[in-house]
Amino acid sequence: YEMKPDSMADLVAGINYGERLFIAKLDKPSFVNQRLVSFIKTIPELDTDLIHALLNSILGLFFIEALGFGRALGALDLSSARLREGLKILNPNLLKPDQVEQIKDAFHPISIRNVLPLLDELKNEDRRNFDEVVLNCFGITEYWEQIEQSLSWLHRRRCSP
After folding, report:
1. How far is CA 78 from CA 13, 137, 156, in A?
2. What angle do CA 139, 114, 47 make, to 5 degrees?
3. pLDDT by residue (tens digit) across 56-104?
4. At a CB cut-off of 8 Å and minimum separation 6, what does 62 contact?
């Protein structure tokens, strides 16, 4: 994926997240304004639904939160350059086809509902199921508690007055 302001976006990220933290998938590729960062598919065979899910996994959210810094009123200050140069994602090439389907199936309930404030989101049953599936598929379930604690700490620190 490549982020350019003059192209049609497949996925978008905010540059000033508040309490809710997520990457959005557009129904169809669209132009976006300067308040969003565009993710444009550059490798045709990449599965956009899988990438969308992985970016919204607990690790994906941790990577986003860790890239920014708190700004007034708890806003996460990000830039397209910071996202382009520093955003990480779990490697989809490490997954078997059945694992890809497991992840996409587990993400579906999250993708069709409103995103909750992050600390509530992390407690939600469909979110916990999704994160368990993702971490299990990558063989890193034992790090779940550490990832969750680190993400929650970063988020609370940013959002505290």
Report:
1. 9, 29, 17
2. 45
3. 999 999 999 988 766 656 677 677 778 888 889 999 999 999 999 999 9
4. 147, 150, 151, 154
Quickly list DSSP for 45-75: TS-HHHHHHHHTSHHHHHHHHHHSEE-GGG-
What's the pLDDT tens digit per position in 100-129?
A: 999 999 999 999 999 999 999 999 999 999
Give the residue from 79, 85, 93, 21 showing the smallest Cα distance to 51: 93
Residues in a beta bridge with 37: 13
The residues, ordered by sequence, that sit 6+ positions from 90 with a Cβ below 8 Å of its Cβ are 54, 57, 59, 60, 134, 138
Stated pTM of the model = 0.89
| Long-range contacts (CB closer than 8 Å, 24 or more residues apart) made by 131-136 | 131/57, 131/58, 133/102, 133/103, 133/106, 134/53, 134/54, 134/57, 134/58, 134/59, 134/90, 134/103, 134/106, 135/57, 135/58, 135/59
- The total number of residues shown for the chain amounts to 161
Q: How far is CA 28 from CA 31, 32, 39, 64, 114, in A?
A: 10, 12, 13, 23, 19
